[in-house]
Amino acid sequence: MSSLGRSSAMIAAGTLASRVLGLVRSIVLVTVIGGAATAAGDAFTNANQLPNNIYMVISTGILTAVLVPQIVKWSAREDGGNAHISKLITLGAVLLAGVALLAMALAWPLVWIYSSRFSPEQLTLAVLFAYWCLPQIFFYGMFALLGETLNARGVFAPYAWAPIVNNVVSIAGFLGLLWAYGGDRVALADWQHPDGSWDLLRIGLLGGIATLGIVAQTAVLVLFWRRTGLSIRPDFHWRGIGLRAVGKLAGWTFLMMLIGQALSAYQQTLLSGASSQGPASTTWFNAWLVFMLPYSVIVLSIGTPYFTRLSEHAAAGRDDDVRADIGRAIRTLGVLCVLAAAAVIVAAAPAARIFNNSRDDALAAAPVLIGFLIGLVPLAVQFVVQRTFYAYGDTRTPFWFTVFQAVVAAALATVSFLVFSTDERLPFLGAAIAAGQSISSLAQVILASWLLRRRLGPLGMGGSLRALLRFTVAALPAAAAGYGVYLLTGGADGWMLAEKLPAVLGCAVIGAVVALVYVLALAVLRAPELKAITQLLRGRLRR
Questions:
Q1: Helical H runs in 106-135?
Q2: Taking the model in full, what pTM does it have?
Q3: Where are the domains of the chain?
Q4: Which of 84, 287, 406, 412 could make an SS bond with 74 (beta carbons 3.0 to 4.6 A apart)?
Q5: What is the pLDDT of residues 144-161, one digit of tens each?
Q6: Cα 406 versus chain centre, distance
Q7: What is the DSSP letter of 295?
Q8: Nearest-angstrom CA–CA distance, 242 and 81
Q9: Cα 4 vs. chain centroid, distance in angstroms?
């Protein structure tokens, strides 16, 4: 196997292992703080998500799209890039520490932006959690900066596998907290003493464990730093490392991320009013985590080689080959994404039970997961279309159709809030906003495809749409068979929703039935994609 093939397989394996352990981490955390309709859980979730949101605004796109090429270029210098990379890492550490300290000083307004409809007590609890979680900004940033430097120097494994350490540390810590306090007793009322003061020890333990995991994964990269061959020393002389050029290259990507975070803040603000009355922030992010598992494994893992080939053809000016690449990528990703969407939609209740502590909470959370899954196929097509623009060096057009998607999603979230904000409808607010997010993704991919057609001419989307329709026809009997298994085992009152381990088994059984019937249906329809995807998966599994 080639070095590139080994690296790709290693990264894919690390990503998959990290995602699976991330699911386990969320299962343990939900057992500690509760799932749907849990005020304390939503307070912690919003506070713990803040560092991610802030880090993504200041870093995502700049590191991967801009700094890695710069590091590769600096590495060709006589000193191997030591001088410039030392300046860069020193600058990054100073900026990240400053942002983390500023965020802690502004903890209250930052939490309020995402949780303005929390009760005063719940908002105070979220702010107390935020003081423990916001230092993660520094360690997230340093992890990405060190990791991308390792990647640029050809050391791929640590960056791909280090998040596993985060998950292991967090799982161990949360299990210890569960043993000390018990999941059923970690409710909002239990966080306050009779005199109205908060249990700062419990808050510190939960927030500290979450932050310790990020510290651990960053420390792993420091241990492997010697493999880069670089000797980094603090260097505060930052002139001459090309910051102005970096800013120009990353501008559109930064604005795109800013738009995405503004939309997320608006959705979370509307959703915060449902906390303690129905699925809210904790359910939302757990459902998103389940949704991202098939997206990561299918779209990111399988789609990336198509992007590499497409980029080569675009660079050579071979537009006909690019159009062929687009069709192949959509059909390959589509055949698997339709299967994944059908299987998880049918198994939504057992899947939700894994992340909730009761049958009723699982049934309330399942519609949120279904709302996200509606958008899995459009998001996969969007991946192909957006990266085609990137292959031609165009980051400006993706920014504008991302703005369009954000406007549509915000409008649908507003309508959902107006319709479902009454007490009896509030439990359905999360599902409605998630479905709106999926509909906005569909609108985005339609606009993006039209814009790409204006650039490249006819894309052959008719053939791709016919293939997606063929996959959907095959998925209908498969989904019916999977749902029949769910009903035969008792449905909402059956063993699949009794406990978390039976729920895992139930998901596996339903998934296997759906996959088997789906493959048989594709064979009956003589879908040419079936042979291609079988060969692709066989090659991936060998690696």
A1: 107-115, 120-133
A2: 0.80
A3: 1-276, 279-543
A4: 84
A5: 888 878 876 777 788 878
A6: 17
A7: I
A8: 14
A9: 25
